Amino acid sequence: MKLATWNVNSLAVRLPQLLAWLDAHRPDAVVLQETKLTDDKFPAAEIEAAGYRAQWHGQKTYNGVALISRSEATGVVKNIPGFGDEQARVIAGTVDGPFGRVRTIGAYFPNGQAPDSEKFAYKMRWLDALREWVRAELAEHPQLVLMGDFNIAPEDRDVYDPVAWAGQIHCTPEEREHFRQFVGLGLVDAFRLFEQPPKSWSWWDYRNLAFRKNQGLRIDHVLVSEALKPRVTACTIDKAPRKNERPSDHAPVVVEIA
DNA sequence: ATGACGGTGTGGCACCGA
Fold it and tell me: Is residue A57 within 8 Å of A64, Cβ to Cβ?
């Protein structure tokens, strides 16, 4: 089965690209971040016409997440239970796979702005809450995938200029420690299960010709549970949509599980 | 180099993202 995560940076703008991508790749499920749509504006009809079911959790202007799947998702959860959050950042559901149902969690992690900011403190609280909820989800659903825009570059090799980015947002020791704690729950970074081209990024700034110069960060991730790890056959970043006219600044990350 | 680029909501720009 094929699963993917994609920060679309406005689903209103990127819907045609999403539909084309679904058509080309026929994934079993995709989680979206930064839909930037209130729930009444979600393009459910267009996505259903493409042969997919959808679950969504949106808000105005910022954030907004969705879970698109070929099978109907069950046990849908929006945001982190017990963590009061004004911001729509999490959607989870259970989807069909050839080896049983797979718990699929899509998340748009807070950016954090700067290490000394209130937004960074929120990011830390949010990460604590997500980790503890994912711990409980794993106990209930051994076949689990946590994917999304983590806004964390786990290691220096995930950063085009690690010297310039040292200690900066996405690269702080605190954020990287949080990433390791997710791994400590019994999850694995699917991308690093395989040999990958050096300088593999999932995000490139819109500015400074960053994509053309391949100056980016790997901040979008797919973490799979130990039960799924032996089944993972590939994990790739699809740079093709970043070459579209009016692209998202993020590329989809795709995992294949057999 | 604190700006660029792009999206949103607003209103002729400000804010935010990463």
Answer: yes
User: Closest CA to B8 C1' — which residue?
Assistant: A61
pTM of the model as a whole:
0.97
| pLDDT per 10-residue tile (average), chain A, 258 residues | 98 97 98 97 97 97 97 97 96 97 98 94 97 98 98 98 96 98 98 98 96 97 98 98 96 98
Q: Distance (Å, rounded) from C-alpha A86 to C-alpha A83?
A: 10
**Strand B neighbours among A 182-241, CB < 7 A:** 203, 205-208, 217, 219
Closest CA to A17 of A238, A174, A214, A203: A238
Distance in angstroms: CA A132, C1' B6: 35
